[in-house]
């Protein structure tokens, strides 16, 4: 295996394993910043050794064992020479290797949920919740997070550093809260789990369009949370949304990993079990008799797609109405962009284009590649191919996902083929 291939493989493994690694280490050392440092140390060692010795059969276990040994060494050294970690050792039960083994080798899933509740503690701002989650649970770099949220990389880096320091300074416990403390954080936790799912469903960057394991983990955490908070309709709404969206994962990419858009997917291959589970969760949400929240509305939109045999048979008028309702209770430019697509399918591309053009000067969409991508698609449907070509070129230049870039370049080529005969 060449070093280039080895490094790419290690990067893929790290993106899959790092959340579990950091969660287990946080339970062990009670400091999320220190846990991330220890996990990074294990990664550095892997980068040094694996290209020479080959990648182990169970790389996740290798990383965990390596990080665990680093943590043991650190605690032993600092019990004698460092007051900070001596204090840490005194206030935890991690006095022996047996204790540490138990802390690391316990139920990782529970640790991940605890880590989410930790990062969603009210001592942190919503912006810090998001940045810390994308960093620790989704494995994104500060640069990738900055590009996603259209802010300076230094700003994101500062948010993450300050968030970790604040959690440590305030002594926020690594535990599942109960009662009012749980409800206080629930909205942020749902947002975090959905962010995690979305990163898996449509990767921000890299060589793969989807990261199924991240979706699976977010869905599993959502199911666990639904059992803990059975009387919260929006939890069931989020689970319904993720169940139905997950049903399409196998059809979102082709044999070579190339993206397959919704209109081109083989619906007979959608996972009917996941769809049934999603519809059941949506029904549980509706039984509460409360007005639907953002996740319930998005789940209802997903259900419209799941219940339609084809794009043509989809109830686009209902989907457009659901997006209108979503926009009223949870407005965002991205919701409006999605509404534009639904409106174009229900009433024609010219109506959708009006909505998209109204978003042209929206600051939060500056640099957001899906804005020119959607506009290009609508222009193509209106046979305005030269304008569409420009939009697809812009979108291709903005995205950091290699698969998505290739898809957009194909659209550029398609436009060029349409434009060329008209110029001759």
Automatic annotation (TrEMBL):
Any idea where the DUF6596 domain is? Answer: 185-285
RNA polymerase sigma factor 70 region 4 type domain location is 115-167
**Segments forming a coiled coil:** 375-402
Q: Which UniProt keywords apply?
A: Coiled coil
Q: Start and end of every RNA polymerase sigma-70 region domain?
A: 16-79
Q: Tell me a Gene Ontology molecular-function term this record carries.
A: sigma factor activity
User: What's any GO biological process attached to this entry?
Assistant: DNA-templated transcription initiation
Q: What domain of life is recorded for the organism? A: Bacteria
Q: What is this protein called?
A: RNA polymerase sigma factor
């Amino acid at each position: 295996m060449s070093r280039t291939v080895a490094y790419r493989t290690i990067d893929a493994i790290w993106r899959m394993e790092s959340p579990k690694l950091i969660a287990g280490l946080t339970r062990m050392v009670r400091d999320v910043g220190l846990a991330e440092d220890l996990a990074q140390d294990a990664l550095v060692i892997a980068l040094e050794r694996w290209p020479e010795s080959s990648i182990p059969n169970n790389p996740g276990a290798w990383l965990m064992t390596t990080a665990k040994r680093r943590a043991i060494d650190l605690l032993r050294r600092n019990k004698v020479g460092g007051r900070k970690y001596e204090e840490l050792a005194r206030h935890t039960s991690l006095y022996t290797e047996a204790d540490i083994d138990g802390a690391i080798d316990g139920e990782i899933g529970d640790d991940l949920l605890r880590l989410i509740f930790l990062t969603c503690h009210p001592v942190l701002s919503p912006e810090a919740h998001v940045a810390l989650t994308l960093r620790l649970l989704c494995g994104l770099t500060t640069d990738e997070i900055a590009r996603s949220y259209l802010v300076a990389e230094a700003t994101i880096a500062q948010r993450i550093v300050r968030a970790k320091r604040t959690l440590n300074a305030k002594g926020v416990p690594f535990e599942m809260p109960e009662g009012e403390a749980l409800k206080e954080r629930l909205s942020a936790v749902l947002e975090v789990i959905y962010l995690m799912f979305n990163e898996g469903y449509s990767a921000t960057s890299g060589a793969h369009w989807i990261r199924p394991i991240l979706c699976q983990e977010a869905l599993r955490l959502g199911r666990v949370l639904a059992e803990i908070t059975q009387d919260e309709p929006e939890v069931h709404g989020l689970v319904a949304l993720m169940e139905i969206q997950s049903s399409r994962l196998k059809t979102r990419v082709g044999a070579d990993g190339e993206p397959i858009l919704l209109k081109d997917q083989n619906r007979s291959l959608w996972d009917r079990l996941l769809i049934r589970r999603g519809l059941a969760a949506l029904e549980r949400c509706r039984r509460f008799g409360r007005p639907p929240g953002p996740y319930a509305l998005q789940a209802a939109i997903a259900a419209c797609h799941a219940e339609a045999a084809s794009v043509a048979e989809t109830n686009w008028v209902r989907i457009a109405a659901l997006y209108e309702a979503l926009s009223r209770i949870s407005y965002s430019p991205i919701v409006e962009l999605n509404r534009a697509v639904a409106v174009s399918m229900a009433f024609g591309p010219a109506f959708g284009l009006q909505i998209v053009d109204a978003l042209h000067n929206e600051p939060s969409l500056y640099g957001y590649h899906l804005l020119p991508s959607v506009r290009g698609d609508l222009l193509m449907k209106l046979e305005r191919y030269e304008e569409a070509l420009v939009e697809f070129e812009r979108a291709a230049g903005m995205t950091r996902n290699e698969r998505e870039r290739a898809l957009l370049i194909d659209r550029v080529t398609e436009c060029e083929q349409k434009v060329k005969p008209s110029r001759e």
